[in-house]
Amino acid sequence: MFNRIKCASNLAKQKCMQHENIETGLPWVVSQSIRHRMWRTAPKNKSKIFYVPEPKHEDPEEHEELKARYRVYRATMKAIRSKFYKDNQVFMETMTAGKSDEDIATEDREHIENLEINDKWNQAIALERKAFEEQRRLKEERKKLLYLYNEEKKRLKRQQRAEEIVQREMEASKTFITKENLDSVIEQALNSKQDYNFAIDPQGQRIGQGSEMEGENKGKPHSLKDLEDFDRNKQEWEKDFAHAPRKL
Amino acid sequence: MPQYELCLIYKALQRPLLHTAIKRTAETILERGGIIRSFENLGKRALPYKMSAHKERHTEGNYFIVNFDSSGKQLEHMKEYLERDIDVIRPSFLRKEKEFRRPCLDGPCFWGELTEEKSKEVKRFMGKTEKL
């Protein structure tokens, strides 16, 4: 356990500042025992509850001597300080007293001239600043306008897309199947046969017909016409895929 | 609502029986708030391998596709129902890439539709007034 000044932490500092000494204007120094290896609110150890630390031994003769010496030190310091103060005062008086009226007048004139130069400089800078600020304002305004324009453009695009979707769906809804026309639609579907069993070329064009490959024609090659088409288009496809790396 | 494709394999039934079976499946979708867009008949085909369903072995079946919209929650019930259907060998649901999404789902609506929160508020308010 150590006795330390509480102002170690910021919070404690604030607390100290709140309770300022009115006479001196300085914060009270609050001493608190901190056990660093324990948490802050840890109570006093059980074995140390009734422990009273022994006061330190103090030699009375030495104490007297120190007191006397400190008194002397304080007196000398005070004397030196007052001497410096007086000397300075005398110096300042001589500085002003030695000057003639002309010197004072020139000093004043110089001061006024300096002020004028300063004013001119300030005006020039003010003009520059004004121009710069105007430019910045215009830039920001343009930025805002551009943002608004882009937003409007986006909104219009979105609206157009939304309308397209709604139109498409409204048209599609006409052919939705309901309970009333269920029988007829099923009949229609059973009569027609969809077939996805066919090949496509790189352009998405259909090669042959799947139904040909079913039943009797199963295992046979495509029709002659399809093969001719394939040969004719082959060179074009190779051109399309010339840039692509060939992995085998 | 998301758009789905229901790919069905029916038993190799006679046409009238197939008709009723298709009608039954279509009605299950309609009853659960779905929208049927179109039917596609792929015809009678040999199955790629022997399939067993409802304690029977099948070597050929009728392939049929139903394009429909439905909520995702209802899909499980539909699947359960179709698995119990004796005429169906395999029901399989596929989600379509292109789906109809409400265009005003993000951002303000162009036709004055309220947002979900706002509509709830309005409903709550209406409920209060009705009680009074």
From TrEMBL, chain A:
Q: Where is the composition biased (Basic and acidic residues)?
A: 215-231
Subcellular location, principal: mitochondrion
Q: Does the keyword tRNA processing apply?
A: no
Where, if anywhere, are coiled coils annotated?
Answer: 124-169
Where is the stretch described as Disordered?
A: 202-231
Q: Which UniProt keywords apply?
A: Coiled coil, Mitochondrion, Ribonucleoprotein, Ribosomal protein, Transit peptide
Localization (cell)? Mitochondrion
Q: Name one GO cellular component term.
A: mitochondrial small ribosomal subunit
Q: Which Pfam families does the UniProt record give?
A: MRP-S26
Query: What InterPro entries has UniProt attached to this entry?
Result: Ribosomal_mS26
Entry similarity comment: Belongs to the mitochondrion-specific ribosomal protein mS26 family.
- PANTHER family assigned to the protein according to its UniProt record, in alphabetical order: 28S RIBOSOMAL PROTEIN S26, MITOCHONDRIAL, SMALL RIBOSOMAL SUBUNIT PROTEIN MS26
**Identification of the protein by name:** Small ribosomal subunit protein mS26
Q: What is the lineage of its organism?
A: Eukaryota, Metazoa, Spiralia, Lophotrochozoa, Annelida
Automatic annotation (TrEMBL), chain B:
Q: Tell me which Gene Ontology terms the entry assigns under biological process.
A: translation
Annotated membrane-spanning segments are none
Tell me the Pfam families matching this sequence.
Answer: Ribosomal_S6 (PF01250)
Domain of life, per UniProt, equals Eukaryota
The family database entries (SUPFAM superfamilies) matched by this protein are listed as:
Ribosomal protein S6
Q: Which InterPro entries match?
A: Ribosomal_bS6 (IPR000529), Ribosomal_bS6_sf (IPR035980), Transl_elong_EF1B/ribsomal_bS6 (IPR014717)
Gene Ontology CC:
mitochondrial small ribosomal subunit
Q: Which molecular function terms from Gene Ontology are attached?
A: small ribosomal subunit rRNA binding; structural constituent of ribosome
Q: Which family does it belong to?
A: Belongs to the bacterial ribosomal protein bS6 family.
- What is the recorded name of this protein? Small ribosomal subunit protein bS6m
